[in-house]
Amino acid sequence: MFARLVSNEAGRGPPAVAEVAGGAGAAEDGARSPRTRPTERPQKSPRSAAGPGLPDEDPAGLPGGIPSSIAVAEKFADGITAGRMEFATPTPEGEEFDDVQVVDQHKDIKVATLDELRLQTNVINDTKRAWETFCSAGESREAAGEAIYSALFEGAPSLQSLFTTPRGVQAMRFLTSLDSFIQALGLPAQLKVLVESLGFSHLNLEVTVPRVAIFRDCILDLFAVELGDRFTPEAREGWKAMLNYCGGAIIFVKSHYADRLSILSESWAQARGVEGQEGQLMAAVAAAKKKQQAREQTSGELNSGQAMQKGASGADVKTRGFKFWKRPGQAWESTGEPGANSVRSGGGEDPMQSPRGEASGELDGDRKGGKSQTAAATTYNEMFHFNLAVMGLQKSQKWLLEILGSFDTIVTNITNSARLQQECNVLALKLSKCTNGGDEKINLGEYKSCMLSSMRGVLAKVWDSSYEVAWNWLWDNVERMLKRTLGSPAKWQVALKGMMDSWTEDDVFDIRKQIYEHFFAAAPIGQDYFKQSNTRLHYIANRVLEMTGEMYADPWKMVDHLSALGLRHVGYAIPTELFGPYVTACIQVITNVTQDQTTIEAFRWSLGLISNMLVGTINEGSTIVMKAINVNSVKMLKKAVSCAPRGRRSQWLLLVQVGTQSISPLSWALQSGSMDTAAAIIEDLLTIRADRERYYYGMEELFERHPDIFKILCAESTALLFTLLDGLVWRSRLTSNGMRHANYYVKYLIVDKDGNFSDALSHLCGTANPEVMSHKVLNVVSDQLWDTIVCWNFVRARIWFVLSLIFFMLGQAILPKVGEPEHLPVWLRGCVFACRLLNYIFTMFRLIYQHSRDIYQSYRDGEVKRVLRVPIPMYLLEAHEGGLFVLGVFFTVMFVTEPMFYCLGDSQWPTEDCDASENVVFRYSLVAMWAMILHWILLVDLAVFSTGLSAFALVCVHVASEIGRFLIALVFVLLTFASAISVLEHSYKDMRNVSGCTVALFAITLQIYEDDYRDFQEDSILLAMVFLFITASAILLLNLLIAQLNCSYVYVYKNMFGFARLRRAEVIVEQLSENCSEKQWRRVVATFGLDVQMEFNAGDIGIAGGMSVEEPANAFTVTHDKVIRYGGSCSPEAQWPEESGEAEEVGDDKFERMERLIQRTLKKLSQSGGSARARASKKSTSSGPTSSGVNTSGDPGRQSSSTGSDSDSCASSQSSGE
Length: 1218
Description:
Layout: H1 2-12, H2 24-32, H3 66-82, H4 99-104, H5 121-137, H6 141-155, H7 167-183, H8 188-201, H9 209-227, H10 233-271, H11 277-299, H12 304-319, H13 357-369, H14 371-376, H15 380-390, H16 397-412, H17 417-432, H18 444-458, H19 465-485, H20 489-501, H21 505-522, H22 534-553, H23 555-572, H24 579-593, H25 597-621, H26 624-630, H27 634-641, H28 649-654, E1 656-658, E2 661-663, H29 665-671, H30 675-685, E3 689-690, E4 695-696, H31 699-705, H32 709-716, H33 719-726, E5 729-736, E6 739-744, H34 747-750, H35 760-766, H36 770-773, H37 776-814, H38 826-861, E7 864-867, E8 870-873, H39 879-896, H40 899-902, H41 921-938, H42 947-983, H43 994-1005, H44 1020-1074, H45 1078-1086, E9 1107-1112, E10 1124-1125, H46 1140-1183, H47 1198-1217
Parallel strand pairs: 3-10
Antiparallel strand pairs: 1-2, 3-4, 5-6, 6-9, 7-8
Helix pairs in contact: 1-3, 2-12, 3-24, 5-10, 6-7, 6-9, 8-10, 9-10, 10-11, 10-12, 10-19, 15-18, 16-17, 17-19, 17-25, 20-22, 20-25, 21-22, 21-24, 22-23, 22-25, 23-25, 24-25, 26-27, 29-30, 32-35, 37-38, 37-41, 37-44, 38-39, 39-41, 42-43, 42-44, 46-47
């Protein structure tokens, strides 16, 4: 019942279009009568007018396009459920027409009017069935699109000049557009909106009746050839009527609204302060139209559509002569000239005179007092705020600024009726939240007054009557759309919230369950996409229900959320055709839950708006690049990006923008695991291409879009780091004196977009990958930073540590050992005490302060790691920092047990030899010994000055780990045999207990044991145990240690310079992050010349953003120039010519298509041959028993040949499938 109601409402369509002064009819009346004021709204006709591309909402209150989508979805669901497809829309009640006459009136191309197309039911069904058969005949939708493109391009040479879009893109456009027209064929109102939008998108093309006829005949001939008998006369009649209707609509829209839309687009681009692409496009449209009209007037051959264009042009000329007047209290902006208080007329009329002297006086006062403000306002937004204050509309500022925020989207989508209706619905939701619960009234006329005043002020030098009519027409249509919904969201929100609050958990569960039951019954194919667990499906349904309420509560948040959600669905490759059945299923379930029409309408309207926004986002975001990423096809990606203009090629690979949200194809490829396409994207971005005028290199765009690209690659795929780094270097193919010129584009490895030190090197160090750090690009960066700034900072940071070791050596190991302690002179003992005191002051207290601060910050920030359930600051787990912490602990213990402090009262002071210090001297010396060892070990950090020395130190560290494993195994063997031998009864005294036996066995292992095996050869069992131990330790473990050391050394030696580079990079990051001031950093970076263009070869000035170096010619082999150069056009809007590899791939594609075509033909022939044989066999069987199993043809090989033919056909089909 509900589906029938929606279908009937959708079938009626919007009322007829009538133009007013805000629509076109009154504007033309104003042109004929100069006394008419365009700013005053004339009486409307009884039927409302939305204007082309601006559809009325259906009586049920759904946004434009929603009733039709729901009706189509429900009919689709009903058809699947019944086992057949039914497309026709019932004839609206009370309206009858002759089906035959309806078809006849559209046999010719009508350009004078644009009525709804109504066809009879059987024509609609046959037309759609023919389309489905054609699409299913090919291997894919792309193949069907290619067939349509080829038929048009090759069958109509006169139209080839119009095919400016790349073949792959245009083919899918043909397919998508025709599919949308076919689906709406039984919905006249929706079809009319679609063809009007098509007309707006073709304003820049010279579409004529003969060209429409050629286009139509090519399509009909294609279907006739491909479908044969399946292309019935009814289907042909339906296709012919629909194509005539589309072509006539394009000509009609262009002849009636091209000038008006051109004015809106051009003036809005100027008012925004930028010359947008829309303004340029419409300017080109206007120029093309004038050129066409001039040519048509010269030739004198005007068809009916051209005559209509001429009549519309004449009407426009007439409207330029009438005057328009200022309303009382309305602020008009001056041109900035002294005494100019009027807007100039495009027709040379006298300046306007204000009908009220007091209003003029107020204007003069405003102008005198606010002259500087007006002069400063150069854009629409600035002028709007100025007029907002001048006109005293501060009380309405909240909702006025809300419209201002959406106005740019509204104006730029004037030619897209569905998107315009969607934006108006969202704006109505936002405005409903700006009324303080309904206390504040919204007067949309206030925005109109302020908008027109602002446009006149910004465009004072060009504003005339045509601008006035165009902007009045735009706003009146927008206002009409807003008023339909403006008062409803508040009551809808209350009703919907009341229903949802009354649900229990069981009710919600049942609703979610019924939604999927209805959805899977209506669209079984949806089960292939909703394959998650039931809990996940229930979560999705629950979020859908919640979003319908959230849309009313917070429309601003939901708009951004839906944009982001739609872009995520682009990556999921979810067909948008499933949204209709899903929305229908939800509405049907809610209709069964409640009988309150307000609640049902609230749910239906909100869910329809959400569905439209998601579908629009997915359609806008589903670029050919994203489709290639979804299947991880490098071939498809290259084919897709080859269609991009050379000036926007990088943007195609890095940005898909829909509304306020965007998604990066590169980022999505990495997240979805499409590593092949991700590598291809990076390679394409970092390929240098050039024409005669400029170079194209995507480095700037890549790092501007993804400043954290190194962080992303380190986390997602380190293998792609080499692809990225290889793309940042160019090497000349030419050499000179054994040297090769190279450019390293390392700007964003050194600085970020704000000029600070980039964190790229930090993330690369985090990978701990020596192979990555050995890359030449990173070597250039690290050497440059080390030589210019880090080296001296590192020396200054480590000099205190070296001095500390010197004083430590003097105070502990050198001066006290000059002679006997009791015979040391007083001055020497004083020097010892001074050295130790310096160590305590400048080393101990420094380490205590540093680590106390760092430990506090680590615990405060939660940067800890639990070791044996004890939270340890993570920075202490680093070897160097942990060593410094332990050294600080040793110095603290030494300070507490310092013998000289204990001897302060001794007469021989300064001395450490007194009675009070006897108990602490040994402990002090033991701690001092370990502190001395640790101090020297930490000094190894200075090996970073030399890459070779650092590499050797790192080899020792890595090899030491193998020795540690050997010692663990040796201790185990020692304890095993020592405990076993100590249990044995024997007479050898050195091995009677575990400790003595362990020492003896360890000495035997190291070959430092003094006794001989003959000393205990009388005890054969003990001797056997010792021999077993020697076998296990000396033969097995020692040789195994040698083998392990050999393997470890080979691995480390292979990458030892990479490890050394890694250590140096870590030092660079540490020093630049902690010990480099901003002033010093910027001074050093300025010497790098990163913004200076570098030469490729002599006299060839190239791209900035890097460093030029000279390398040995034999270091790298370069066989071809990395810069790909092209001749021909130098326009940034032109595509790059196909490269040789791409041309070969395209040729392969042609052969593949030819092979598939041959296979398909053979399959058809085999099927037709099989049918003929079946009929012959049936005939022969009916003739008598002699034909059964007997070969009467006289050809003994015919039967086997037939079988072979069938098998060949099957093999061919299988091969084709493969």
